[in-house]
Amino acid sequence: MPHLRVLITVKTYPVVSERYDELVCTAGVSPGLGFVRLYPVRFRYLPYGQQYRKYQWIEVDAVRNPKDSREETYLPDSESISLVGRPIDTANGWAERRRIVLPWLSQSIERLTEQGRSLGIVKPAEVLDLKCTPVARDWSSKDRERLHQYMLFGPDRKPLQKLPYKFQYVFRCDDYNCKGTHTLMVEDWELGVLYFNMVEESQGNEPAAIAKVREKFLDVLCGPTRETYFFVGNTLAYPNSWLVLGVFWPPTTQQRPLCLTHNSH
Ligand SMILES: [Zn+2]
User: Fold this and answer.
1) If both were cysteines, with which of 38, 48, 70, 71 could 76 make a disulfide (CB 3.0 to 4.6 Å apart)?
2) 134 lies in the same domain as 66
3) Does residue 152 belong to any structural domain of this protein?
4) Tens of pLDDT along 141-166?
5) Is the peptide bond before 124 cis (omega within 30 degrees of 0)?
6) 51: CA distance to ligand 1 center in Å?
């Protein structure tokens, strides 16, 4: 079985699936290959020593997933996952992360679609908003049944909470061929974790938790001191429908001048 070396860049909030109770979409960059998706991975059930973090190198045996037509999808042998060193830090303005990730930058969502890609990274020209919309608060009865069924087998597992809101970035690509604004759902695991932590901290005050999520994911990650990129991926069922899987947000390399010097004549 081929052996892959992957720098993990993306982990999505777990979803309930028909075949494997809950799943996390993990993706990253593999030298020479570019973006790869490891799927399925039952991340929360991996032994602790195999629970990789973002920006950590892993080695894994994996084959192209025969049930997935997307070229980037690999079916990992979960038992073979091994972590290589500590996650890459953010020293020197994310220099090492930039060196590995940014060579795979695509011009736009439109370009990725044209090229038949299912994963990539794009740099928005402008992030206009982070929309927040209420969605179903509970799992469907089918999903609950699936979760319940598996819970019987794993007594020490934590129940998976459902996010009662969906968050969507509204942005334009930095490409003259961009067809207009995109409104893409954010699937980043960290957003879900932040939301639930904030709900807990504010004793159930959901508007306060949403405000905190917007503050972090819009004002900080997409703020003027950050160079913002989105890791994006599409879904197997709807290749034209893209999701934001995570944010790459190194500090801006060029500081804007504080004041302009005028030529005196
Ligand atoms: Zn676009």
Assistant:
1) 38
2) no
3) yes
4) 877 777 666 555 444 556 678 899 99
5) no
6) 34
